[in-house]
Amino acid sequence: MNMFKGIDWRSPEMLLILMAVSMPISFGVWQALLNNFVIERAAFTGVEIGILQSLREIPGFMAFAAVLLLVFMREQTLALVSLLLLGLGTALTGFFPTEVGLYCTTVLMSIGFHYYETVNQSLSLQWFDKKTAAHKLGKLVAVRSFASLVAFGLVWLALDVAGIAMELVYLLGGGITILITLFCWRWFRQFPEKVEQHKKLILRKRYWLYYALTFMGGARRQIFVVFAGFLMVEKFGFSAGEISLLFLANGFLNMLLAPKIGKLIGHWGERRALTLEYIGLMLVFGAYAFVSDPWIAVGLYILDHILFSMAIAQKTYLQKIADPKDMASTAGVAFSINHIAAVVLPAAYGLLWIFSPAAVFLTGAAMAGVSLVLARMVPEHPAPGMEVIWQKGEAAGQPS
After folding, report:
1. What pLDDT, on a 0 to 100 scale, did the predictor assign at position 81?
2. Global confidence as pTM
3. Is residue 4 part of a domain?
4. pLDDT of residue 394
5. 115: domain range?
6. Residues 6 or more apart in contact with residue 53 via CB below 8 angstroms
7. In a 10 Å sphere around its CB, with 0-12 CB exposed, 13-18 middle and 19+ buried, how is residue 291 labelled?
8. Burial of 205 (0-12, 13-18, 19+ CB in 10 A)
9. Contact 312/141 with Cβ under 8 angstroms?
10. Burial 61-76 (b: 16+ CB within 10 A, else e)
11. Residue 171's domain is classified under what CATH number?
12. Within a domain: residue 1?
């Protein structure tokens, strides 16, 4: 593949690529099987799935603790430990098909997933140059999408072709992540840190717009992650194999489009990219509320997934305005902010779902509207001291 051209096979970028492969294998299998597994094996309703998803987000809310762990281990080590926990939690999921069992394995898997995502964002923004970061982040999204294709293809082949039980598919997906992670541990040396990171929690007033965008993104993301897939199974009767094929289509399109989206963000700038994302999400969520045709729902699901690739712009916005020493701390704080609403919304919306599924998606459209207002405050050329625009040509926000 062109994305590997000219890459040193023992470089930090190659490590990021292999970790980007490892994570979606487990998470993709977990995600593709979840709705069917909990309904068929544990008789979950919208209430239980909402509680499970709220529990899954608690480690995300606690992501700020990743910064505190850097006192005891390097970021690179923490990323690999987190991937091992993700793989273990996924591998065990199929063997505990009860309400409490699924809650426990979900939390274990989620600790690994969220701590990896926190540290991975910090490492990526430190190791990539600002001029090429958007494109390289797009390449990593493409790699993750390719790995997701493998995971979803594995699920489809195992269930619909080979007739393998879901329990064993969970074990296989988690086991592959563990093996790739152990290989990374032995193959790559500990890379030196370009800038020593703060090992304490830091909140800066001048990052407030990034925090606000992150909070709103976490709130509306839950509606897509939790209820868009649940809609497919509950309303339209999609099987686990069909859901896997849908994820395959998403992964294939993201593999092709993510690097191009990254280049587009580098050319357009964060303000225009985020504006496009939020306008698109308003339309998609509004359509979800009233969709009655399964094929239209499939189209909306795919478009929804593509639009989320535009969130690369949030990361590059932070990279342009932040002190390099703040990357690890800010990534942890941002993940916690991202999950404040995520801890509460799935359970609350699980109850709302019983009365009105349409209302769930309409509130998502409203959240995208708030994000759009915030996006218009992002400067055309963000930089320290130029973090926010309030009105025509006026910049606000000074380093603190």
Report:
1. 93
2. 0.69
3. no
4. 44
5. 10-396
6. 222, 225, 226, 346, 347, 350
7. buried
8. exposed
9. yes
10. bbbbebbebbeeebbb
11. 1.20.1250.20
12. no
